[in-house]
Every structure is written in structure tokens, then in C-alpha cells.
Amino acid sequence: MAKYKIVHYLNQFFGGIGGEDKADFEPEVWEKVVGPGQALKAGLGEDFEIVATVVCGDNYFGENLDKATDTIVEMVRKYEPDIFVAGPAFNAGRYGVACGTICKAVEERLGIPVISGMYEENPGSDMFKQDVILVKTGNSAATMRKAVPTFVNLIKKMVTGEEIFGPSIEGYLERGIRVNYFAEERGSERGIQMLIKKMKGEEFQTDLPMPKFDRVSPAKPITDLKSAKIAVVTSGGIVPVGNPDHIESSNATKFGVYSIEGMEEMSKEDFMTIHGGYDRQFVLENPNLVIPLDVLRKKEKAGEIGELLPYFASTTGTGTATNSAAKFGDEIGKKFIEEGVDGVLLVST
User: Fold this and answer.
1) Rounded Cα gap, residues 43 and 149, in angstroms
2) How far apart are CA 82 and CA 161, in angstroms?
3) pLDDT by residue (tens digit) across 195-215?
4) Alpha-carbon distances, residue 312 vs 31, 62, 102 (angstroms)
5) What are the φ and ψ backbone dihedral angles of 103, each rounded to 5 degrees?
6) Are 172 and 132 in contact (CB under 8 A)?
7) Which pick of 138, 187, 280, 289 has the fewest CB atoms within 10 Å?
């Protein structure tokens, strides 16, 4: 019996190339098992073979999305695999987005099963869980051993066409897909059983899980805008020309703070955008479209606002992990408190 063939996708770190210093590594295909592939190989047994491993740097993929996708799909096509496996990416946001993007492209263009895995707060999970089966992992590679049995079970089912059950049974992320099934007990009976368990303080599982939303209490309104100190923050990727802090165009891991002291408007000679999620041509010509310094200076001179903070904070929002965004917000907020800022203009893109 011929073995089932797998092509595996990894980023530069899990491919053993290096860290951020190698994030611009261009796609290469190796006919060997690498990194996490070893654990998958051991779990899958003799009926499966990882015939090739594709490795690509996270920055290269994000900055050359179409080219990288086309290149990798053609690399995969050459081996005619029975299934394509990417990652897992755990909580690495750029890696998660790359895994989701290439899985979706391989499935659509080559018509073969695909699977990846990542932490539920990875930005790639929200972007691709409806399109790709994503094994639910922990937030670091330390959880790989725990994830392997889930990968193995799903890979075997996908290549043989066996029925895949719901996410709570199989261990993948919720996809928002509802499937009809015949329950042993009618809804009223299940509802009564859940109610009794709830009244007893026992655990129960609802038939219809509700989404969970963060609740943030709004700050008190500014009582006197004419004497208020106002700061500007953007996720639109506005940075000095040349991007000196090397902020990523997607899944940012850092933010920058840049002076606007003495400036009447944002100049394209001084500022640019590195954002990877919108058409940048208009902002590259006129950065005031994202940081409205020209308008704010007029309001400052007219006495409509008290004072504009002499710098702004900037990052990119595309695919940025929520925990990273929360960290940025904490650090920026503490800085603004020290500066006596009364209000913040969070600029939309």
C-alpha cells in the first residue's frame, strides 16, 4: 500500500533558519522532515510520509503576499500530496496569518485537504477558522506534544474521507458552522436537565454557546475641551520615512512614538505609512489623511482645543494580536498619564 503524502509548511523559526534576523527568508522547499514535522511523523506512523517541507520567513510572506502564495502553491503542487499541513503557529501572529493564507490557497487551487493549528487569540484564527480546520493549541510551542494527537486524528480522517465531528469533540477551533443532527432527547428535556445542573452549580454544556465580548467602561467626558491636552494615536502605520523602528506591516510586535513639535502639517517628505491592510497610495501622498495634524493645528490656534501633545504614537493594526494591542495600549496610556493628557484621538483608517 502506497503511503499518504504530506507537504508541511513552516516559518523561519520552526524551520531552524533563525529568528527575526531571518524573517525575510524567501520560500525554499526541502525534501526532509523538519522541526514539528518530527512529532507529526512519529504520531502518524508508517502509513504517512512527509515528502517535503516548505520554509518561508514571516516578514517575506507578509510583505510579498501574492508572490509568496503563488510560489508556495507551485512548490506544493509538484509533490501531489494527499494533504497539506501548516504550522502549528501557536500564538505567533504573522506565522498564523501565513499558515491560514497558504492553507486556503492550497485548498482552493489544488483541491486537497489542508489543516493548520494555532492559539485561539492568534489573529490568524479569526481570519481563517471559517475556511480552514485549525487545531486548537496553547500559546507556545511547549504545547506541541498535547496538540499532536489531535492533528494525527484529523489528518487521518481528512485523507480517508471519514466524517469529522464538531469542534468540541475533535479539538479544533469553532468555525461557526451549524450541522443538523438527531439528538436522543428532545430540546425541552435537554433544557430542563441544563437548568437543574445550573441550579445545583454543576457544569453543563449549552446547545447554543454565545459569543463573549470584552466590556470596557467609557471614560468620563472631557468637561472643557478648550483647555484639554489632546494626544493622537493611530493603528494606520504612520512612521518617519524609512521606518526607523522597523514596525511590521502586519501583526505588529511594537509601536513607535514620533515628534510633531513645531510642525503645522504632516509632510510626505518626513512621514510615510507601512500599513499592509489598505491602499496606501493616498496616504503616502498626504499623511494628514491618517494623522490630521493640519486640522488639529487650526483647532489649537482657534482655541477649540487647549494643547496638542508634541508627539503621536503609531503601530499597524492588520492582524495584530489582541494581547499585543493591549500591551501597546497599557504602555502608551501610562506615558500619556505622565504627560497629563486629557483625551486621545484614535484615528481611523
Assistant:
1) 7
2) 11
3) 999 999 998 888 777 767 677
4) 48, 26, 35
5) -60, -50
6) no
7) 187
Please, are residues 27 and 73 in contact by the beta-carbon 8 Å criterion? no
48: which residues sit within 8 A by CB, 6+ positions away? 3, 4, 6, 41, 155
Cβ atoms of 312 and 99 within 8 Å: the answer is no
Task: Please tell me the distance from the alpha carbon of residue 6 to that of residue 50, in angstroms, as a whole number.
Answer: 5
* Look-up of cell digits 466524517: 163
Measure the CA–CA gap between 5 and 235, rounded to whole angstroms.
42
Mean pLDDT for the chain overall: 91
pTM: predicted TM-score of the whole model, two decimal places: 0.66
Burial of 138: CB neighbours in 10 Å, binned 0-12, 13-18, 19+? middle
Compute φ and ψ for 70, nearest 5 degrees: -60, -45
Dihedral class, residue 158 (left if φ above 0, else alpha if ψ from -120 to 50, else beta): alpha
Neighbours of 105 (CB within 10 A): 19
* Residue partners of 254: CB distance under 8 A and separation at least 6: 245, 246, 247, 248, 315
